[in-house]
Amino acid sequence: MKAPHLPRAALVVALLAVLAPAVHLTSAGAAAVRDDCAGVPWMDRTKSPERRARALLAASTLDQKLRWLDEHSANDPARTTFTTAAPRELPPGEFVPVTFTMPPQVPCTPVIQYTDAPSAIAGAGAGVTVFPANVSLSSSWDRALAHEKGAAIAHEAWRKQRNVLLGPGIASGRDPRSGRTSEYLGEDPVLSGLMAGAYSEGVGANPAEPVQAQLKHFVANEQEIDRNNSSSNVDARTLREIYTLPYEIAIDRGDVGSVMCSFNQVDHDWACGSDQLLGRILKREIGFDGWVVTDFGARHYLTQDPPSLRAGLDQELNAWRYWTPMAIKEQIAQGRLSEADVDEAAYRIVRAHLASGLFDVPRLSAPDPDVSTPRSQALARELAERGSVLLKNDGVLPLTRSARKIAVIGPTAANTPATGDIDASSVCLHTAPGIPCTAKAPLDAITARAQAAGATVTYADGGDLTAAAATAAAADVAIVFGHYREGEFADRPDISLDAGGDALVSAVAAANPDTVVVLQTGGPVLMPWLDAVKGVLEVWYAGEEMGPAIAALLWGDTAPSGKLTHTFPRSEADLPTAGDPRRYPGTFSDGSVVRPPGNTEPRQVAYDEGLQVGYRWYAAQGIEPLFPFGHGLTYTTFAYDRLDVTPARGGLRVSFRLTNTGGRAGTETAQAYVELPAAADEPSKRLLGWQKVTLRPGESRTVRIDLSPADLADLHLLQYWNAATGRWTTARGAYHVSVGTSFDTTLRDRFVLR
C-alpha cells in the first residue's frame, strides 16, 4: 500500500528496488514471478481485488498505467519495444507506424494470453477438443450443460497457456444469413442471456486454472456485410429489450470479466467509442464493473466528444493503433482527457484480472501438446446429442431391425472429400480460421452401428444424382445429409442447402419413401422437399464427435431432446428483413445497396422492424413458420394440463401437469410464455421460463416453473422499456401465461397486476 509520507515517484523507486530480485526474464521474454511476490501490496490475497488494484496503480507511473490500455502491452509486462499498427481499412497515410519504448510493467504482473474460442481453442494447433457450435448448445436449453462446456473449454485454454477467453458471443438472430449465426445462442434474449451466463460461470469455475470469460460483440452486431463500416439504427426500446438485454442477463447471472465492443456504429455512433452504449447502458444502467475491449481494429477515437477513453472504452485489442501513449498524453495536455480517465480504465482491467485469479496463479511455462481428454470427448458427444433437434418424424425413426439395408448419401457423411473440400470435417465447426478439426465421420459410425444391428450400409457421395437415387432405391431406409457452410467475414447469400443439396434430397426421396434427412447447418434452412421425406434431424455443426452422436440418435440409443432456438421460415420472403434493402443489407446515401467505388461512408441499416425479431415477427405478422421457436420432437409424446399461474411473495409460480403419453422414456423441455397487458404494446407473447423434465412411459408429474422476485426484476420478465421515462416499467393489467412444447403453446391462464 502506498505510504502516505512518500510521493508516488519515490514509492515506485523504492518498490522496484526492493522487488527487483523477485523477477527474472524467461527465454520468451515474459516476467516469471517467484513465491516472494507475496510481499508485494497488490499480491496480498487477504485484501479485496479493489484494494489490490488501487495499490498497484498507486505504485505505477503514467506510462505503466497506459500499458494496461493495449492488449500487447498489458499482457506482456516485460516487453518494452512496441510498434503502432497501420489499419488497412482506413485511407493510406491516416496512420503511420511508429516504434517506441515503454518502461517494464510493475513487478509481479501476470503474463496474459487471449484466445478466440467459438467452440474450440483457436490458434493452438492440434490437440484441442472441437465441441459443437453454440447454436447447438443453445438448442439443448440446458444451463448446466452450458456451464460444463464453459469449464471444459477453459481447462483446455489454460493448458494451452491461454487465460482470457474471447467468448461466448451473443447476437439476436435478426437475420439467419449472418455468417456467425452458429457462434451465438439463439434469438430470444432471456434464453441466450441465461445460457451465456451459465457458460461464463463455467469458464471461471476452477480457481486453480483461472480463465476469464468475455462477452462479445456489444452490440447490434447482426451481420458480416460491412460490419466494420455500418450503422445499426435501432430505437431505444428495441435496443434494450432485444439487443442489450441478453448482455445484462449474462452479466447479472454469470462470471463475466470483460465485454468486447463491436465494429459497427449504433445510431451513427461507433460502438467502441459510444458514451451512450458503454458509459450509460453497459456501465451505469447494467452496472458492469469489468473492462471493455475493442474488436480487432474497431474504430474508437480519442478526438471525438467525449473521447472514447472517457466514454467507457478501456482497452485496445492487439497492437496499439488508435490509443498510442503519445496520443493519450497529447489529449491530456490539451485538457480533453485526464490521468484520472487513464486510472479508471486501468483499474477496471487490473481489478478484473485480480478477481479472476490471474495475478495469483502464474500462466503455465509451456503449453501442453494435447489437451483433449476422453472426458472432454465424451462431453463433445453429449453436447452433439443433446443439441440436435428432431424436426420431423413420420415413424421412420428410431431405426429398427426392419432396416436391414441402409443407404447413406451425401458428401458430408464421409471423411473422403467427394468434390473440393466438402466432407464431414468441413462441417465440424464453422469456417473460423485456426481450428483444425477431423470429425468422426457419420458414415463410419452408422456403418458400425448397423453392423451391430445386423444391417448393411451402402454409400453414395451424392455427386451423381442418378447413382444416389439408385443407391437409395436399393435400401430399406435412406439417410441423406444436407449442409451449408458459414463463417466470419461474410454473410450467406441465402439459407438453402449448399452444393445442390435440395436436388440431392429430392432425388433420394423420390427413390425411397423412407428417407431421413440429416441437416448440418449453422442456423435455419429452407426445406422445399419437406413433404417428401419422413424424417428430418438438425444436428448443426456437431463437432468432432458428430458421427457417434448421429448414429446414437438415429437408432434411439439416445433419444433426441433438443429444441429450436431460432424460428425456421418457410421462405426467405418471410424473414423480418426481407423485401426491404434498408433493413438488410442496408443502403448508402444514394440509396444503393452495393458500396459505390471510393465510398467510405457507413452503410445505414434500418432496424425498423423494431421488437419484431425472431418469433415475435412471425406472431405479430401472422406468418406461419416452417418450424416455430422451441420446436423439437423426441421418440415419445407429451400432454399438458392443469395449468395454474399464481403470483406469490413478489414472484410467480407456473404449475402444470406433464404426462408422457408414449411408449418410451423421454425428456421434454416444457416452455412458458407470457403476454403482457395491451398497455405495454408488445408484438407478441415472449419466453418466460422453461423446465427440462424426464418421464417414464405413462408417468405424470406436476411441473413448477418458479420465478423469484429477483428473476422477475433482473431478467425483466414482466417489464418493458419505457422510452418516455427511460426506465424498465411494469404495466398494470392482465398477464396471460401459456405453456406447451414450443412457441405454439396450448394451455393458457392469467393473472392481474393492479
Automatic annotation (TrEMBL):
Signal sequence, start to end: 1-30
Residue ranges annotated for the Fibronectin type III-like domain, each copy included: 668-743
Class of this enzyme: hydrolase
Record-level Gene Ontology MF annotations: beta-glucosidase activity
Keywords, ordered alphabetically: Glycosidase, Hydrolase, Signal
Pfam families for the chain: Fn3-like (PF14310), Glyco_hydro_3 (PF00933), Glyco_hydro_3_C (PF01915)
GO terms under biological process: glucan catabolic process
Enzyme Commission number(s): 3.2.1.21
Keyword Signal: yes
Keyword Signal appears in the UniProt entry: yes
Region feature Disordered, mapped onto this chain: 566-600
Membership in a protein family: Belongs to the glycosyl hydrolase 3 family.
Protein name as annotated: Beta-glucosidase
The species this protein was found in: Nonomuraea thailandensis
Highest classification ranks of the organism: Bacteria, Bacillati, Actinomycetota, Actinomycetes, Streptosporangiales
